[in-house]
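Sat 14:20. Reprocessing the chain from the morning session after the first attempt stalled halfway. Input below, unchanged.
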Amino acid sequence: MKTFVAKKETVERKWYLVDAKDQVLGRLSVKIANLLRGRDKATYTPHVDTGAFVVVINADKIVLTGKKQDQKKYMFYSGYVGGESYRSVEQMQERQPDFVVKHAVKGMLPKNRLAKKMLTKLKVYAGEEHPHEAQNPQAISV
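Finished this time. Tokens:
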């Protein structure tokens, strides 16, 4: 029997709907990253994007364990001398609730060109509403 190698032309993509309400950020991000990479499929090939589209709703209601809600900081850099700024998770959830989930998932994807394409298949929304009803996303529990 020959080894199966997936090709990007033959990949069939599914759509999944994930409800992030009361889910722990890290555990949720692992599941999402595996779906984006296609690790749940028997046809998984590391150098081919075999993953599915993932729609995450209720991103503003995620939970962090321990004291991370108060102590975890995100650093931003303007490019100028002294241009560092820090924001806590609480501030980021108020301003951009989708950023916290996207940032966590991005850190769990491989560090190469393929990761950027995988990240475009992640759709994160703060509330219950999302514009992807036409794709009939399959709701999964993580």
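Helices lie at 25-37, 68-71, 89-95, 97-107, 113-119.
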